[in-house]
């Protein structure tokens, strides 16, 4: 196992050990997206396993706006049902978010229970999802991408909202946002039709879709191609 030893700049003042890449060890790759790679890692500071979301920086463009938004929101959102952001490491090439490590996600969990979850487990997950979203909504934050892949499940059955890259603090008095939010299967009809005026109901539609999927083992509105196919 090799420690990544870039010349990192600390986001903390003084001699704080946080914000430094040498504090973390990459163990294995967990997944890769369009602008970030997620690793299972180990924190020498906390002596525990963590998740490292490594975002590749473009020399001219810098950090993606979604990453900046995710960091700013998670810094303020502290709740048992929201994934914890422990640290941020900034180097010339990458921006790395250090999250608590959570065992699996709801999508993977449901794949192991193809006929639907035990009603008691579905009820437990639903309660935790609603509690986490209520905390966000009370603080005027919309998640905007509620789907099983963004709901992490710990080994003891704790559900945690993750991936706040599309999340947004609700502006006042304007309620106009982008309609390019939420994976198609969990996107409400008005947003599919291009509406940019929505509120907490956007997240709650996704909750309803996920609840049905947990009970039946099947997505309730599985479109396969594009927005028009999803509406059909």
UniProtKB/TrEMBL annotation:
Residues annotated as domain Protein kinase: 24-232
PROSITE patterns the UniProt entry points to: PROTEIN_KINASE_ATP, PROTEIN_KINASE_DOM, PROTEIN_KINASE_ST
UniProt name for this protein: cyclin-dependent kinase
Family statement drawn from the similarity comment of this UniProt entry: Belongs to the protein kinase superfamily. CMGC Ser/Thr protein kinase family. CDC2/CDKX subfamily.
SUPFAM superfamilies for this protein: Protein kinase-like (PK-like) (SSF56112)
Record's catalysed reaction(s): L-seryl-[protein] + ATP = O-phospho-L-seryl-[protein] + ADP + H(+); L-threonyl-[protein] + ATP = O-phospho-L-threonyl-[protein] + ADP + H(+)
Residue sites binding ATP per the record: 53
Source species, domain of life: Eukaryota
A GO term from the CC aspect: nucleus
Enzyme Commission number(s) from the entry: 2.7.11.22
InterPro entries in the record: CDK, Kinase-like_dom_sf, Prot_kinase_dom, Protein_kinase_ATP_BS, Ser/Thr_kinase_AS
Organism listed in the record: Callosobruchus maculatus (Southern cowpea weevil)
Gene Ontology MF annotations: ATP binding; cyclin-dependent protein serine/threonine kinase activity
């Amino acid at each position: 196992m090799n420690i990544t030893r870039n010349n990192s700049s600390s986001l903390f003042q003084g001699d704080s050990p946080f914000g430094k890449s040498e504090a973390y060890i990459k163990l294995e790759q967990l997944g890769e997206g369009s602008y970030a790679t997620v690793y299972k890692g180990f924190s020498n500071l906390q002596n525990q396993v963590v998740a490292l979301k490594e975002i590749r920086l473009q020399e001219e463009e810098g950090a993606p706006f979604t990453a900046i938004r995710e960091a700013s929101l998670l810094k303020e959102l502290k709740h048992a049902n929201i994934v914890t952001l422990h640290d941020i490491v900034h180097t010339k090439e990458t921006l790395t978010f250090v999250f608590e490590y959570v065992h699996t996600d709801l999508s993977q969990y449901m794949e192991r229970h193809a006929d639907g979850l035990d009603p008691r487990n579905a009820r437990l997950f639903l309660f935790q999802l609603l509690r986490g979203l209520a905390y966000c909504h009370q603080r005027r934050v919309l998640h905007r991408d509620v789907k099983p892949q963004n709901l992490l499940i710990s080994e003891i059955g704790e559900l945690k909202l993750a991936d706040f890259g599309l999340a947004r603090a609700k502006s006042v008095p304007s309620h106009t946002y982008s309609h390019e939010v939420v994976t198609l299967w969990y996107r409400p009809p008005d947003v599919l039709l291009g509406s940019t005026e929505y509120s907490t109901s956007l997240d709650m539609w996704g909750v309803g879709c996920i609840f049905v999927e947990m009970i039946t083992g099947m997505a309730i509105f599985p479109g396969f191609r594009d927005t028009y196919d999803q509406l059909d």
